[in-house]
Amino acid sequence: RGAFPDSRAVVDSVCANENNNNQELLEVLLRARGDPNSKYNGKTAMTCAAQQCSLPLTWKLLHAGAYIDSSNQEGYTPLLVALYTGCEELSSFFINHRANIKASTPSGDNALQLACVHCMSNVARLLLDHNISVNHKDTQGFTALHTATKYDCADIVSDLLNNVFTDANDVDDKGKTPLFYAAALDLAGIMNLLIEKGADVNQRAQGELTPLMEAVVVGKLQADVGLVDSSGNTALWMAASHGEKEVANLLLTSGSAPYLDQKGKDGATPLAAAAWAARPEAMQLLIDWKADVGATNKAGYTPLTLATLYTGHLEPEGVASNPTAVNLLTDQIRRVGQVTELLVNGKADPNPQNDEGFTPVNSLLRFKKNSWAVPGEAAVFAAAVQQDVQWLLQHGGSATQGNKYSVTPLHLAAYNGYPQAAALLIQMRANVNAQNAWKKTPLQLTGAGAGQLEIAAMLRRHGAH
């Protein structure tokens, strides 16, 4: 008589009776002044009630004075236990009765992240209404948006993205945003939600993977890599045209090899698309996979023709007066040189002709760099062009072949002022007195621009008139 029930009795009345929820025994113990905050064997009566999703037991304990945030030995509060167990009604009860929503598990998950594990959208919305932190991270760097994405909780993802504090591009400890997990799990709906809210589709994780590459690596998309867009382009074609070597490699090792030479826009193969854009790294990969270096597009152009074609695609806007634009063009021409070497070393014909009859050597010498009002940058550009031409001439490029108007490489070198190229052409027995369709010789095309006077003197020394 007069003795109070010990802690074990109170805790066991709840924890050891998980199947029958012995409420009457608990009532007796609490009336006998048993401590509702008793702890035994690492457990509390409140956390056990939460684990059983028992609102009646929880009510009785709280009415008797139990702390709503009393934690067990592992550090879980009743709210966290209810969330971990998936008890939606009880979780909402705890939140509405001011349980600590900032508490977290030993692995760093807060209440919102646990709600995401079970896709409890109503509970998540309630937590958001109570201003829980949306950018809290667990020990792996996961935010609630990562967790909601991983567990395919589209409703929660939508609610999180509508919260002004949510960062769609926050990364975990592996450098991955939620979009990586959506892509890897083929969650198209969630991917669309994330992208609409600004998720970066080109974000790179620590392993240098993008979300698309992650999807290919994980292999869960089960996508048809042979599908084409409205222009007839496959995924491999698009990767090659943008120089995405890593993506192209993953596609080739994941089913795209049969589409290595499939033609897309304008009848170009992936290799031709990469050549047009001067993407040597992607081209090296495709050539290693035995892409056809001589495949022609609808116009009959080979990849080498496309790479060296004198068109606006090689000339940045404002190149005539903008030093930065000229420098960009110089970088482009250097890449064209790398592309040329890859193709010719891969047994491509070094002298294919375009519809005007221009060979790659001719095309490279067509740039009118003396018309640019940036002579210093133009000189650097000219050196890059002549280096490309020199390599081509030394590896099978024709020094004499003219176009359909009988314009030879020497005509172009003289007209545009490329003295090193002119010297090499003369050394390779180019005709210094060749006439084009307008009866003009190379000497007659020289002027007073950079390199032209030097070429004129050179031509005269070799008998030009």
Automatic annotation (TrEMBL):
Which SUPFAM superfamilies has this protein been placed in?
Answer: Ankyrin repeat
Q: Which domain of life is it from?
A: Eukaryota
Name the InterPro entries on file: Ankyrin_rpt, Ankyrin_rpt-contain_sf
Which Gene3D superfamilies does this UniProt record tie to the protein? Ankyrin repeat-containing domain
Keyword field: ANK repeat, Repeat
Pfam families with a match to the protein in the record: Ank (PF00023), Ank_2 (PF12796)
User: PANTHER family annotated for this entry?
Assistant: ANKYRIN REPEAT AND PROTEIN KINASE DOMAIN-CONTAINING PROTEIN, ANKYRIN REPEAT-CONTAINING PROTEIN-RELATED
Query: What is the protein's name according to its record?
Result: Uncharacterized protein
Which organism's genome codes for this protein? Polarella glacialis
Q: State the organism's lineage.
A: Eukaryota, Sar, Alveolata, Dinophyceae, Suessiales
